[in-house]
Design brief:
alpha+beta, 6-stranded antiparallel beta sheet, 23 helices, about 25% strand, globular
């Protein structure tokens, strides 16, 4: 295991002493020699041992040298050395001798593991203090800092520790999770989405430290999750669209953006409810929330956590609208209540008002996918109290989730899904039959309108999608932003976060970007990256005002290397200005322009087409190989690279193409060819439930993206375009059969290392059997090689 710790704060010796004293390690009567102090520290870290004999027995489990156990070393009163310190340190951090390291190659293994070490003289007390402080903040093999491991063993139960408590700039797990208070409130939103003449009340589930009952005010992590009250899987399946549909010609138009731009319409709202009384505590509770384990980590560290599903969900008013302005307003209402600027009630009937008196009025939003999407949406509203968002795998433009360049495009793994499908899936109010009765007809009519507004027929960008595009409003963001995204995420595709990153460049807020090599996943339990520590440093600063230099310590961009496991690097930007061009040839990508034409047919033999639609992996595989797909796509490779290449940004293809019909689409894949072991896009479970998030508290699996079996190629990036949307997604261009037109298509951005000897590949084809509609039409495409090329952003 290689440790990558970006959240480690370097402190002065004076600060280390102060914090170790507060922690209970460095007592006023501490030993005065380096060796004695070391063993004093060690004894305090053996939390489960009560006496000297037990301490010695436990030390017997550790190697001090290749030939001596630590108990013998201690009893012989040997002098501590750097080699002994770090040999024991690795074992304390759960690394195994002869598996993760060898005593004989300790120095090399320390470098390989990337352990933070002290270079001082270990005969000096100050060096022991410095080294022990670092050790407490180093990560174990299983993904938690050593100090967190001690907390999980009950270290703080033996200490009189102030709450909250911060060590190395991060909140520590000193809170008693068994005393967490769970209560429900109903926030009154400035909405009436079900048109019932009353403002929508929105259920909010709250988990807050029991210590708030003693006067402690705490910040809040808010996860806006339309899934948290349940989903309607069968209803979503029933509404899912058949994608075996032909591509249709669109009538050309001269539509300008201003013609379809969304303009909000002010609606007259019902009056606010009359308050009938007040209460300090909720009258409703819950047993188990639909939790996010990053939130669980912070619940043990002095943060409240709230989950809100908002309009159209179980126990809330309203209807589900999927990404609309109203949905954002509903989520903002929760933040406003937490910040003291909106009303909430103990239930939906009695109008008994309740305030968030326990809140310090500082809020962060967390969550992945739809959850992170709503965090981005709320950030554009400049809502008071929202200090930062941590948006993971988030949508910044819903059009590019369900559409792209004039085409209906499915999110990876969900062909036939659309905005209305997601709306009914998350309309969990349906599960309360009595409540659903009152808005059923209204919602069914709204779904019919959504089906029309979203326009699957043309796939064009329109007012419906413009309402659900947050990018024009990124300039309004006032809170700091952390973005996390997978470079192999073909559900919420990489362009979503790249567009957000680019839009934030001119916005005067702090922004951090973390790019991993996984698919649509969380990374807070990936053992090689200290993501939880990074976010702890960030949130301790943002929500508790701890002066820990979080903005300076955390790199602007952290990205996971694609060629080596457990390797994370930093970058200054995600957009190289240097371009390397490769030109289309008959079956090769060349360094110089080529001539000639290449044609391929989109239509497959019926039996082959049906087989592929039932086995997308087989189609993806054969797309990249000689065989059944020959003649049905253009496939070309570069010469073997004479030196390594690093792609940083958005690859782009320029293609001059003709269709034999007056309609057409192109799909493009950029491919890494060369036999090699590559990272799997889905992490392996290393230790089930091995990540303990606090003392007698919840757990998470320890995960890691590992190298898989050797493969001959890997998809780097892709893109899609309707040939009639060559200028933009709202304007339809004419296309005549046999007419050559030029398209420029940006592929999804990447950070990708191609080692020497690899080949760059490009596949150009029509129907994407997983993502586009698939009519298996008799269309032939002809590429003009002389006017077609690939531009690669290279470092």
């Amino acid at each position: 295991m290689k440790l990558n710790q970006f959240g480690l704060q370097q402190v002065s010796l004076q600060t280390a002493k102060k914090e170790l004293t507060a922690l209970g390690f460095l007592a006023k009567d501490a030993p005065q020699t380096a060796t004695d102090l070391y063993f004093d520290f060690l004894k305090k870290s053996f939390v489960l041992v009560q006496d000297e004999g037990g301490f010695i027995a436990k030390m017997g489990n550790y190697l001090a040298t290749s030939t001596t156990d630590l108990a013998t070393f201690y009893q012989k009163k040997e002098t501590i050395t750097a080699e002994v310190f770090y040999l024991v340190a690795l074992q304390l951090l759960e690394f195994e001798a002869e598996i993760d390291f060898k005593p004989e190659t300790l120095q090399e293994d320390l470098v390989k593991i990337n352990l933070a070490t002290s270079s001082g003289d270990f005969n000096q007390v100050d060096t022991i203090i410095e080294a022990w402080y670092l050790l407490l903040n180093c990560h174990t093999k299983n993904g938690l800092a050593f100090i967190d491991k001690l907390a999980n063993l009950g270290f703080y139960r033996k200490q009189q520790i102030e709450k909250p408590f911060f060590f190395n700039g991060k909140a520590q797990a000193v809170f008693e999770t068994e005393k967490i208070i769970r209560e429900v409130v109903y926030v009154e939103a400035p909405l009436d989405t079900d048109n019932d003449g009353k403002r929508d009340l929105l259920k909010l589930e709250i988990l807050r430290p029991g210590e708030t009952e003693e006067g402690l005010k705490v910040p809040t992590l808010f996860t806006a999750s339309p899934y948290s009250q349940g989903v309607n899987g069968l209803a979503g399946e029933a509404l899912t669209y058949d994608v075996n549909q032909p591509l249709e010609r669109k009538e050309p138009n001269d539509t300008a953006y201003e013609d379809i731009q969304y303009h909000p319409v002010e609606k007259e709202l019902p009056p606010e409810r009359e308050v009938a009384g007040s209460a300090t505590h909720g009258t409703e509770t819950f047993v188990k929330e639909n939790n996010h384990t990053l939130n669980d980590f912070f619940l043990a560290r002095g943060f409240a956590v709230v989950y809100g599903a908002a309009i159209g969900t179980k126990d809330s008013d309203g209807i589900q609208t999927c990404g609309s302005v109203e949905q954002t307003t509903a989520m903002v209402a929760y933040i406003e209540w937490l910040a003291g600027n909106r009303r909430a009630f103990t239930n939906r009937i009695d109008n008994i008002e309740i305030k968030a008196w326990w809140s310090n009025k500082k809020i962060a939003m967390t969550g992945k996918s739809y959850l992170g999407t709503l965090a981005t949406a709320c950030a554009t509203r400049q809502v008071e109290g929202l200090e930062t968002i941590i948006s993971e795998a988030a949508i910044s433009n819903w059009y590019q989730y369900y559409r792209d360049n004039g085409l209906v495009i499915a999110p990876g793994g969900f062909p036939g899904e659309d905005a209305d499908v997601l709306a009914i899936e998350t309309y969990s109010k349906m599960q309360n039959a009595g409540d659903y009765l009152h808005s059923k007809t209204f919602f069914e009519n709204y779904l019919k309108q959504m089906a029309d507004w979203q326009d699957r027929k043309t796939g064009n960008y329109n007012t419906f999608w413009d309402e659900r595009n947050y990018l024009p409003f990124i300039k309004d963001i006032k809170c700091d932003v952390v973005m996390v995204h997978g470079l192999n995420d073909w559900n919420v595709k990489p362009r979503q976060v790249a567009d957000l990153w680019d839009a934030l460049k001119e916005v005067p807020v702090a922004k951090k970007l973390i790019l991993h090599q996984g698919q649509h996943i969380y990374i807070n339990n990936i053992s090689s990256l200290d993501f939880q520590d990074m976010m702890n440093l960030w949130l301790s600063h943002k929500l508790y005002d701890i002066d820990n230099n979080a903005k300076e310590i955390l790199p602007d961009i952290v990205y996971q290397a694609n060629t080596d496991a457990e390797t994370w690097n930093t970058a200054e930007d995600w957009n190289s200005n240097k371009v390397e061009t490769l030109y289309f040839g008959d079956n090769a990508l060349a360094a110089e322009p080529q001539t000639g034409q290449v044609a391929f047919k989109d239509q497959l033999p019926e039996e082959q087409f049906i087989a592929y639609t039932k086995n997308i992996e087989k189609w993806e595989k054969e797309l990249k190989e000689a065989g059944p797909m020959d003649g049905h796509r253009y496939l070309a490779k570069s010469a073997a690279l004479s030196e390594e290449l690093f792609l940083n940004g958005r690859p782009k293809v320029t293609i001059r193409v003709a269709s034999n019909q007056d309609l057409g689409m192109l799909s493009v894949e950029l491919i890494d060819f060369g036999e090699a072991k590559r990272l799997k896009p889905v992490p392996d479970v290393l230790v089930p439930k091995g990540l303990q998030l606090g003392y007698n508290w919840r757990e998470d699996n320890v995960m890691e993206l590992k190298l898989g079996a050797s493969t001959p190629y890997k998809l780097i990036s892709r893109g899609h375009i309707n040939l009639q949307n060559r200028e933009n997604p709202w304007k339809v261009n004419d296309l005549q059969a046999g007419e050559f037109v030029e398209i420029e298509l940006e592929l999804h951005p990447t950070m990708y290392h191609l080692p020497k000897g690899r080949q760059i590949g490009l596949a150009v084809y029509g129907t994407d059997l997983e993502k586009t509609i698939r009519g298996n039409q008799d269309i032939e495409y002809t590429l003009d090689l002389a006017a077609s090329h690939l531009d690669l952003p290279v470092e």
